[in-house]
Design goal:
The structure is a homodimer of 123-residue chains. Chain A has a single domain, classed as S-adenosylmethionine decarboxylase (4-Layer Sandwich). Chain A has 123 residues and is of the alpha+beta class. Chain A is 30% helix and 40% strand. Chain A contains four helices and six strands; from the N terminus they run αβααββββαβ. Chain A has a six-stranded antiparallel β-sheet with strand order 2-3-4-5-1-6. Chains A and B meet through strand 1, strand 2, strand 3, strand 4 and strand 5 of A and strand 1, strand 2, strand 3, strand 4 and strand 5 of B.
Chain lengths: 123, 123
Amino acid sequence: MFQEYNSSGKHMICDFKGIQNLDLLNNLDELKNVLKEVCKNNDFNILNEVEYKFHPIGLSILFLLSESHLSVHTFPEKNHMSFDIYTCRQYSDNAAYMEMFKFLSNKLQASLDSNYKIIDRYF
Amino acid sequence: MFQEYNSSGKHMICDFKGIQNLDLLNNLDELKNVLKEVCKNNDFNILNEVEYKFHPIGLSILFLLSESHLSVHTFPEKNHMSFDIYTCRQYSDNAAYMEMFKFLSNKLQASLDSNYKIIDRYF
């Protein structure tokens, strides 16, 4: 109970591997739309965003949320995308985060060795 | 060796607790200067940045780096700051990250129960 009382939220770190939908890893607008869908599905409020297109390939996108932040880095040459979401919202379990992982995994057509870690953070 | 070859870098998650230097948690420019010092000390290249001042207190700052990203969220009412740094740079050990933790801990005058986790990420 003490720890729950002091929760500062959950942080999920995902590494999506073997991605088949390479278009998504190089298309800034399309990828941002997918991330905005994640935010919409979870009622996350995007306060500000910043992005960078690496040359010749690769994207980085950061969303500053009312609830904390979301980050993405794509490595098309490795069929890889790293994704982080940290929110200070209080969840009773990991279900919402696992839904996000599944949603992104489907969009990316990622392989089954993609993985996630969910870290509970405390004040 | 296989895993080292496939390293996508190290991600450090820090929770600074019992912070005495509360001014730093509410002063956007001062806190950004401290974070820029972290980047300078480590030769991280800031490509873009975004920030938000919450009302009445609390700051969020995200730096998009050539090397990935850095994020900060302050909770002055809890004497707390969460800090993340993810870089795709290849380090042979955790020394540089532990130096960052110590540097920030000193600047914040954080308590000894502040903690960090260093997560190795892979393609």
